[in-house]
Structure formats: structure tokens, C-alpha cells
Amino acid sequence: MFHRKASEKIRIVENDGKPVSNTKVHINQINHEFLFGCGAFETLPYTHGQAVHNGNGVPLPVGPDGKKYTEEELKAAYARLEDRMQKWLGLFNYGTLPFYWGGYEPEEGFPHTEQLMAAANFLKSKDVKVKGHPLCWHTGCAPWLLKYDNETILKKQIERIHRDVGNFKGVIDMWDVINEVVIMPVYDKYDNAITRICKELGQVGLVKKVFDAAQEINPDGIFLINDFNLSAKYEKLISDCLEAGVPIKAIGLQSHQHQGVWTLEKTEEILSRFEHFGLPIHFTENTIVAGPLVAPEITDLQDAHYNDDDATPEMEQKQAEALEKMYRNLFENHPLVTAITNWDFGDGAWLNAPSGVIRKDGSLKPSYKTLHHLIKEEWHTELDETTDSDGYILLEGYKGKYEISAGDKKVFFNLTKSSKNNSDSKQLLSYSCQMEACSLMLTKRR
After folding, report:
1. Are strands 222-227 and 174-179 parallel, antiparallel or unpaired?
2. Who wins on pLDDT, 349 or 59?
3. DSSP string of 230-298?
4. Helix (H, G, I), strand (E, B) or coil at 100
5. Alpha-carbon distances, residue 445 vs 7, 9, 10, 419, 431 (angstroms)
6. At CA 310, angle to CA 309 and CA 311, rounded to 5?
7. What would you report as the CA-atom Rg of the chain, rounded to the nearest whole angstrom?
8. Is residue 362 helix, strand or coil?
9. Sheet strands side by side (includes 5-13)
10. What pLDDT, on a 0 to 100 scale, did the predictor assign at position 301?
11. Considering only CA atoms, which of 93, 94, 85, 1 is closest in space to residue 284?
12. pTM over 0.85, yes/no
């Protein structure tokens, strides 16, 4: 797994520049560069719960669902939210927040910006990278758009992207710009504004307009195209878009496995058709269910539904084993895969499926424990080293953020790449880290 690891030579100095010589230091990885993600939708009721407490810390009589409750009921509800949120943060470093236009802006001109901003800022404060999902999609589209002609619909779609990418810049710099384009122009389940303009502009035409709009507002943003249809049609769409100059920064592959867990052969075949683009690949919506499979005759998973008692201990264990196999393969064998998002954190979310890593009552499933072992133990770097007479140590480990401590002093350091993989450099890169209480200063490379 050399592609997930790096090494750097680091010099640790005191505030006055004196090297921390011949000193034992503790090195602990506190975050991964790789994005181990999950849907973070429940951050919204959690941050709402924090917001509705008055200055004395007593909850106001409004619950996370907007309904009124007794004080005892509220305390219990927020305790459950707190417990779920801490378990979420104990596993993931990457969260997807919902920006479905119909739910985000149910009334034209009144988007739920404050609610989403509170959730995004909270996650960012916990060193979690945040992605918005999605900016353009035919499903979940705002119904009030239907009163406009196509020219106006497109204008409002571009304005929406400018507004939201601009408002959240610096907090959310990663977006699923457009979702499920492969079926967008032929989607006929119900009339919607985005299918209308996709039919008129064509797939590549619409993709280019929405990506250009996002790129214009945030040139440094990471913008994904995302789809569940992983056939040759999606591969050709990406190729045509790149040829047209669409600034796609990463490719999103949905992997909802409600109708059967992917075999290794299927995973490799899919990746072989998308890795050749040389772009980062995100498994944006991964689902493995601890329950019965959805019938093969159901062609739209939106039509599926699970019963409350569908999960069994045996199926929960199989879910954990399947997740481990998938994560191991993607993390250990595919350098271009840079993110995996487990779509549901808790059971009973989308389709009422038992697809989370915790149960409805908040208890941990085998899948949570399995992923925790991989991310926080097996793929984790923690060790003790002793600086040499000039204050140097050699840090080798998984790429990510580290805390280096000596006594009550600490510095933070990002291990991102190893110069030994750089053909024009024969020496390991050296950084000077100024050791203070909870601060870090990187000087010029030596």
C-alpha cells in the first residue's frame, strides 16, 4: 500500500529555534488524507438542537423535527442525537450534506442556508471535509421551477449554483455538481424542470454549463459528476464532457448494492473503465444491506421498501464482511480511489433499509466495528521516536494529519507525500516544526 503511505524527515525546534535534541516524541495520526465518508444528514437535526437551547442551556420546546415536546422528551431526543453524532465522528472524516433543490429551497427565494451552514461549520470544526450533494438533479427538483420556460429554468439553475457555491466557499469546497445525467433526458417518472432543459441542451451541453458555473465561482473547488448508471454510457458521457472542456475534478461512482453485493470481478471491471481517465474516483454512495435483496424486477430503487424487522444477526455479519472486502480492495489496491462514502449511517434511512453501521436504537453493528478496526487501528500510524542531535526524526506512515508531542508540548503536521517517490529528488524533504503548546509552524524546505 505504498500509495497510501509517505515518509518525511522532520526537524523539531523550540520557539527560539533551538532543536529538540535526543528527545522522545510521540507521533499519532489524527486524520487520514483518504476520505472515509458517510452521509451526514443527521448533522442537521443535531446542530438545530444546539441552536434552540437558550442562554441557560435549557432546551426550548421544539424538537429536531420542529414539533413541540416536553422538556424530558427533548432531553432524551437530544441525548440520542449527541450519542449518534459522537459515534459518527468517531469513524468518519468526510460527510455529505443534502442540497436537494426541492427540499433546500421549497419556496423560491428562501433557501435553508442557515441550517446547512450550521451543519457544515460544525463538521468543519471537527476536521471533517464536507461535500454538498447535488447542485443539479432531475429528482428532488424544486417544483416551482415548472412555471418557467426553459431559458428561465437554466438561468435560475446557474444562479442557484453561483449562490450556493459562493455562499459556502471555504466551508464546502467539494460538490456533486450534477447527478445521474445518463438517464436525465429520458426520465419520465414525472415532469421536472431539469429533464426539460437537458432534453433541449443535450447531456454534454447541460453538464458544461453547470460545471462552468461552479468553476467560475470557486476556481479551486473540487467538482464531481456522479451517477448510478456505470455502463459504457456513463464512460462515454465523461469522455465527451472532458473533450468539451468540462472541468470535472473527480468521478463519482454510486454503488448501491441492494440487489446483490458486487463481486470482486464486477468491481474490477467497473474500475478498469473509469481509471483510464486518470482522475480521482469517489465511491459516492455505497450501500450494502443487512437484509433481503431487492427483487431484480424493480428497476428504480426508489420503488423499493424494507420492513422494520428485515435485518438478522447473520445478515449483519455478512454486511460487515462484505464492507471489509470492498474497503480493503479499494483502499489497498486502487490508488485513484480517494474517497468512499457509506451512504446511510443508521438503519432505516433511505428506503427504511438496514443499510447503516448503527441500528435504529443507536447500538453499533458489526459493520461499524469492522470499519473502525480498519480505519482507526489497522490503517493507523502511532509510534514513539527519538530525535537526533539536530532535532530530526523520520516519520513514515499513512498519509494524513499528525500530532507530534513531547511532554506537554505538541505540533501538528500533514504527511502528504514522500519525496522518495519524486524522481528529481534523492533526499527526503525536511521540514522544521516549531514546537509550542498546540501550534505548528512549517519553515521552508531544506
Report:
1. parallel
2. 349
3. -SHHHHHHHHHHHHTT----EEEEEEE-TT-PPPHHHHHHHHHHHGGG-S-EEEEEEE--SSPPPPTT-
4. coil
5. 14, 10, 10, 12, 6
6. 95
7. 24
8. coil
9. 392-398, 5-13, 430-434
10. 85
11. 94
12. yes
**For 163-206, how does the pLDDT look when each residue is reduced to its tens digit (9 = 90+)?**
999 999 999 999 999 999 999 999 999 999 999 999 999 999 99
Which residue type sits at 141?
Answer: C
- Taking CB atoms within 8 Å and a gap of at least 24, the contacts of 78-83 are 78/49, 80/362, 81/42, 81/45, 81/46, 81/49, 82/46, 83/362
- CA 408, CA 230: separation in Å to the nearest integer? 51
The answer to whether 343 and 350 are in contact (CB under 8 A) is yes
CA distance 149 to 157: 12
Task: Give pLDDT tens digits for 219-258.
Answer: 999 999 999 999 999 999 999 999 999 999 999 999 999 9
Which grid coordinates belong to 86? 459522537
**Across the strands, what pairs with 255?**
286
Distance of CA 304 to the CA centre of its chain: 25
Which of 72-80's residues contact partners 24+ apart within 8 Å by CB, and which partners? Answer: 77/49, 78/49, 80/362
- pLDDT for the residue 123: 98
C-alpha 161/C-alpha 9 separation (Å) is 43
